[in-house]
Amino acid sequence: MLDIRGRWKGVLLPLAAILALSACGSKTGENESTGGAVADTSGDTVKVGLLNSLSGTMAISEVTVRDSIRLAVEEINAAGGVLGKKIEPISEDGASDWPTFAEKAEKLIREDKVAAVFGCWTSASRKAVKPVFEENKALLFYPVQYEGLEQSPYIFYTGATTNQQIVPGLDYLKSQGKTSVYLVGSDYVFPRTANKIIKAYAAANGMTVLGEDYAPLGSTEFGTIVNKVKASKASAVFNTLNGDSNVAFFKEYKSAGLTAATMPVVSVSIAEEEVKSIGTQYLDGQLTAWNYYQTTPGAANDKFVKAYKAKYGQDKPTSDPMEAAYVSVYLWKAMVEKAGKFDVAAVKSASDGVTFEAPEGLVTIDGATQHIYKTARIGKVGPDGLITEVWNSGQPVKPDPYLKGYPWATGLS
Amino acid sequence: MRSLSWRAGAGFAVGAVLLFGVAPFALSDFRLSLLAKYLCLAMVAVGIGLAWGRGGLLTLGQGVFFGLGGYAMAMHMKLADAGPGEMPDFMQLYGQLDALPWWWRPFANPAFALPATVLLPMLVAFLLGSLVFRRRVRGAYFAILSQALAAAMAILLIGQQGTTGGTNGLTDFQGFFGYDLDDPVNQRMVYFIVAGVLLLLLAIARQLMRSRYGELLVAVRDSEERVRFLGYNPANVKLVAYVTAAGMAGLAGALFVPAVGIINPALIGIVPSIEFVIGVAVGGRASLLGPVLGAVAVAWAKTTLSEEFPAAWTYLQGLLFVLVVAFLPGGLASVVRLLRRRRRPPPDPAPVSPAPVVAQEVTA
Amino acid sequence: MTVIVSQLFTGVSIGAVLLLIALGLSLTFGQMGVINMAHGEFIMAGAYTVYVLQKVITGAGWSLLVALPLAFAVAGAMGVLLEFLLIRRLYARPLDTLLVTWGVSLILQQLARDIFGAPNVQTRAPDALTGNIKITDDLVLSNNRLFILALALLAVVALTLVLRFSSLGRRIRAVVQNRDLAAVSGIPTGRVDRLTFLIGSGLAGVAGVALTLLGPIGPTMGTNVIIDAFLVVVAGGIGHLKGSVIVAFALGTLQSLVEYSTTVSVAKVGVFVAIVAFLQWRPQGLFTLRTRSLA
Fold first, then answer.
1. Chain A partners within 8 Å of C17 (Cβ)
2. What does the record say about its membrane topology (chain B) (predicted)?
3. C217 occurs within a structural domain
4. Which of A269, A325, A413, B317 is least surrounded, with the fewest CB atoms within 10 Å of its CB?
5. A227, C7: Cβ pair inside 8 Å?
């Protein structure tokens, strides 16, 4: 019955031969740098990649980022392009799935030969594409606030790192006389790292952390967590929940009788778009920590908000990650123009000190970390669903992804 | 019988020529690595075809076994990258651990990690299967339990960020048994290994299907009680199919890691587990090659369509489930069979392979 | 002490939510054996009904009251349509029903995305339901959860009465217990199936209205809850409402107590382990129904 020898010779022999022939690639550590993919900039256009989730759970947020990148590209093209070349955006769908992100990043770099890629939202998607960009020596512009502790030579981070968002949020709570916090977050990298930082900060600044709870992403049952928060009698809550969970959390929070007046919540993942889907009924007076709000004053922002609404609809709000994405395209343009060419190495070495008058105010690239100087802003959700600033850092804060400049943070990374 | 095994041999040869001789030259490096990914999914499909098509066990939790195999391999590769005695990079970042957790340690040794990619999923399947089948939990109950298992496993992995990488999963691998994964030549080698393993799994599945056991399995699917009256224990018959399918999924997961470069909890939960099934249904659950071709075709369609119309893919996927399962339960394989029969009306009287059955589940 | 009481209340109310979601399933899955994965999307349809209705009726209280029967009708109609177009053909193939309805649920989710947009939408809850009843300073019972508890119990009572005393209920039970005999006795089994599906799916719509008080209203809200609901019915036993009721409250309480002392993930995994262990002990669920079929 198992007479397979004869049949198998035909398959196994060539198989073995091919394996023997092909197993002669380089070993690890030999590190004969393969040079990476080279962007094709020969035509009169230059291609850039847009890598966002257009389907799946993250589409909610990432589509708005894609839209604002497109807006920046159109504006730049209307003004003559970059180094005389029009930008040709190629959009790919990451489908809220990390392996897909890696696959599409590879496609953009190798098949389309783009000069730079803009996109990714979650830390997980960034971690998934990071090796792809490093291996191919290509550029990624990442526009979302994140947990720090990272500095890839091929990624530019235009969202806030922890010392531009979380630390100012804590400073603000401290200045308001809040001496104890309860930490609530979704179960993934950003909240866990953020809470580690918060605990170190609290220990050094006389604050007590009364509890720490994580809900699985997408979880919508917050009865128990809110009970715990209430029982802790903390003077404030630091909220790193993401997505759907925020809706359930704030509905529960309100019906347990907790309010912004008695126990304010500082959220770091709730922007204008999210306020709309949670409902001001539940959010009125709660705090957020970002670097940009739709209401941020300034001519650059007026122009951005106006252009965005004109293109995508009057009811569409603008938010921090959208602004950071919009800014990232302009920063890339400025870097390329300073370098005089699209070559990745040249662009990278030209990056230090490049500035842009952004909707959030003046931003400057810090060449050493490839992050940008950003002004920290604490905002309060108003009854109209917009967030208004109640405090800002006065000047752009130097990015410090490893928190090296904060004595209490030693041992965190 | 003689002519049949000749045909099967020829089929394998054609497959081998296509996979080894044509694809590597016709496709760019990038597309070839995509094909490697599809072939990994196809391996899972071979197992599902066996358990579901032949055994009537709708395994909606294959993601669990895929993940076990994948994580076992990924843990080994992470440890190999880190070097002896060192901790993987992500643990140093997020783990706040002083030493490697005990359950990571054995995976440093390839002699443990490699067999574990297959044996670990099989062991879990064996434990779960013997609990569930022996108590005659079946049909719908089994399907729902498998789904819940997938969900529970994903939640568990996500919750242990410091030691499993949480939602990020394990990624950023440098080498695969000493070979630099950045090198296109080595990527090609990974593809060859994947293709070779797939052919091997197909051969195993074919032998199983055509053996006495295979007939018993179909009998259990069609009438469990009757098999019991004949003196066999249906629980054992089902267990073998379930464990085999789990092993195949584990192997697929293990090869997915070097081929794609990441393993994460999102590949384990309910949605991917059910997506494994659709390719099998499209291709033809009860046939040997149907699941493989179906899985590759569906994965390819997903890549191609989602490049152009992201929303359209969701509709198409939904429609595939509805139309194929409701109106063409035998999948495309049944269409092929129908055409072939029409072309060549009276087949030779000798018994053809186990009757081309259109699967019919027994009500639980 | 207050902690335990308030956790018990939370547990009971989690149980009530589970029960409300699972109640429709205990009809379609429990009584008819149909695994309808699109049940979650019927819940979603119920929730969107509130959203659409609030564009017309601005008073939050009235809109909620009107939404309850309307959501029942909307989701019920979707259920009947699904039964008529697809499920009817698949009664002999329960596992295939699972896959087909999964496909339907994908399509419905994408439809919701295309109609209402991918982001969650907001609805207003009446002020009376965002407040709470204060027992002591530390112990408050939130009104929305009390409302859901009442709604769940009401639904159970109504469903029990219908099944036990109405002629439709008698017919449903007859079909469940012996379809052939019921058909021979002149019961139009096809129409009874459709009516059962109408009620089961309609209850999903009602659950959707209730969920707007607690969580997000978006295209994926159904998928978040569907597996839990199925587990409730599986562990409760086929053909018995009683089983689903007991299991729902037991699981809710278990989850809230475990979660309080550990974490959400541990609680979720713990609940799953508990169910597998329970099925080892009672493979047919808490209550079993004697039917004349073999299995």
1. 221
2. Multi-pass membrane protein
3. yes
4. A413
5. yes
